[in-house]
Amino acid sequence: MMKKILLIEDDLIMRENISELIELAGYEVEVAENGMVGIEKTKSFLPDLIICDVMMPELDGYGVLYILSQKPETAIIPFVFLTAKSEKADLRKGMELGADDYLFKPFESTELIRVIENRLKKNELLKKHYGANSGDVHAFLDEAKKVITLEDVKDDSHVFNYASKEFIYKEGEHVHFVYYIEKGSVKTYKFNDDGKEYITAVYSEGQFFGFQAIFEDRTHEEIAEALENTVLTKISKKDFLALIYNNREVAQQFMNIISKTLSSKEEDLMLMAYSSVRKRVSKKLQELLANTDEISLLRTDLAKLTGTTKESLTRTLTEFKNSKIIKTEGKKIILIDRDKLQKMDLIW
C-alpha cells in the first residue's frame, strides 16, 4: 500500500518542487499552504509522515507540531521539519516539542528521500505489538535501540539476582534504574507515623517498577524488597530517558506495556473498596500465581495487600484449602485448581 506524505509549506515553488520529488519516489502526497490548513488535512488525509516548514504565517511549524502532539491519533505520526535555520536553539526547541528529524534548506533530493525512507522504516519497527512478558519486553528494547541514533544509548541493561527479603532500593535513595521482573516478585512499602509497615504494591513476573520516580524527577518514596528469590533486569536511568524522550513512538510503546501494570494497581484499589474478602484474596492470588503454581509470602504481607486482617485472611485461605483450591506449606501457597480459584470471583 502506498505510503502517504503530508507536505506543509507556504512557499509555492518550494511546495511544488518537493511534492514532485516525493511523488516520483512512489509516495502519495497531499499539500497544505499553511499550518492551519495542514492541521485540517492531517485529520482527513491521515498521513504516514508529515514534512512541515518551520517559518510560516498564521501558524508556524512549532505550533503545528504542538497541536498535533496533543491528540493520540496524530501524536504518533513522524514529523520532519524543513528549515533554513541551523541555530542550536531552534533545533533544540523542535526536538523538545517532539520533532523526529530536520531537513535544512537547501537540501539534495536524495537527502529528502533518505530521510523519508528512514523515518517510515523506524516507525514501522515500533508499530509492532509488544506485550508485557519477558520476551516481548526484550524485543521492544532491542527494536527501540535500533531507532535511537544517540551514541550515549548503549546496551547496558543487565540482569541481577536478589535473594528473598533483600532490599532493591530504600526510601530517599536516588533513582538509578528502572526494573523489570524476569522471575519472582517484589513488594514496595512504607512505614506510617506509628511505625507500622503498609504495602503500596506487589509486582510480579512481567511487570516494571521504579519508573514513577524517574518521571516525577524525585528520589524513591518507598522501599522495594524481594519477596522471594527474584531475577531483575535493570535499565539505566540514562538509557531509559533516552528511549522515552528522544522518540515518540518508543514512548507510546512503553506506555502501552506499563499500562498493564498501572491498570492492575487501580483494580486493586477498587477491589479493596467494594469487594468481599474472599473475592479480594482470590483476585490477588490469581495475580501472584499468574505465571507460577506457588508463591512464598508472609500472611501479614498478603493481608496488607488484600486490605484485610490476618485473621480474616487465614479464615479465607482455610476455606480455599478445604475446597481443594490451594494448599500451604509454611510461607508457601501452592495452587491446586486454577479454575476453581478463578470461579471464586463470582462469589461475593
Describe this structure in words.
The chain is α/β, with parallel strands linked by helices and 348 residues long. The chain has three domains: 122 residues, 3-Layer(aba) Sandwich (Rossmann fold), CATH 3.40.50.2300; 129 residues, Jelly Rolls; 72 residues, Arc Repressor Mutant, subunit A (Orthogonal Bundle). 45% of the residues lie in helices and 22% in strands. A five-stranded parallel β-sheet has the order 2-1-3-4-5, sandwiched between helices. A four-stranded antiparallel β-sheet has the order 6-13-8-11. The radius of gyration is 26 Å and the shape is elongated.
Provide a short characterization of the protein structure:
The chain is 45% helix and 22% strand. It contains 14 helices and 16 strands. A hairpin with a 5-residue loop joins strand 9 (185-191) and strand 10.
How does the SSE layout of this entry go?
Elements: E1 4-8, H1 12-24, E2 28-32, H2 35-45, E3 49-53, H3 61-68, H4 72-75, E4 79-83, H5 88-97, E5 101-104, H6 109-125, H7 134-147, E6 158-162, E7 167-169, E8 177-183, E9 185-191, E10 197-204, E11 208-209, H8 211-215, E12 223-226, E13 230-236, H9 237-245, H10 248-274, H11 277-288, E14 294-296, H12 299-306, H13 310-322, E15 326-329, E16 332-335, H14 338-343
Parallel strand pairs: 1-2, 1-3, 3-4, 4-5
Antiparallel strand pairs: 6-13, 7-12, 8-11, 8-13, 9-10, 9-12, 14-16, 15-16
Helix pairs in contact: 2-3, 11-12, 12-13
